[in-house]
Amino acid sequence: MNILKLCVGPRDVASLREGQARRALLDPPLRHLTRQFPKRAPEIIGSGSLYWVVAGFCCVRQRILDIREEAGDDGTPHAALVLDPELVAVAARPVKPFQGWRYLAPEAAPPDIASAAADATGISALPEALRRELQALCLL
């Protein structure tokens, strides 16, 4: 089981990567806080991923290593999704805005973009914004 979540703040994957690298250095391990604790946590931990929706497209994922309870800035309990720092590119697909997060079944999750195939075709060398536009036009 996976989780689908809107990426609020960063406008592209590069910004998400930079922000997470900064947070991982300042307050390890890398984690994302959310108010609602997933009831299906045992199905997610270790085998599930957090699929990020960046600028309207589900285009990247991170493995969820653990889910634990942690206090937010205001002291209220939150779920801390402990994330693998590696961002894995997936075949981008448009996603309409929603609040919170959603479960994402493995069969509904977009496939990973094989880095070897992307490098062989030069796709990985394209700027993120151009790659997103080409995916929106169904050219990639």
CA gyration radius, whole angstroms: 15 Å
Q: Estimate nothing, just give the exact number of structural domains.
A: 1
CATH class: Mainly Beta
Order of helices and strands: EHEHEEEEEHH
Which CATH architecture would you pick?
Roll
Low-confidence stretches at least 5 residues in length (pLDDT < 50)?
none
Total E-strand runs: 7
Question: Which bin fits the share of residues in helices?
Answer: 10-25%
* DSSP summary: helix tally: 4
Cα separation of the termini: 26 Å
Average pLDDT confidence is: 89
> Would you tell me the structural class of the helices and strands?
alpha+beta
Strand content: 25-35%
How would you sum up the global shape?
Answer: globular
CATH topology call: Archaeosine Trna-guanine Transglycosylase, Chain: A, domain 4
Largest sheet: 7 strands, mixed
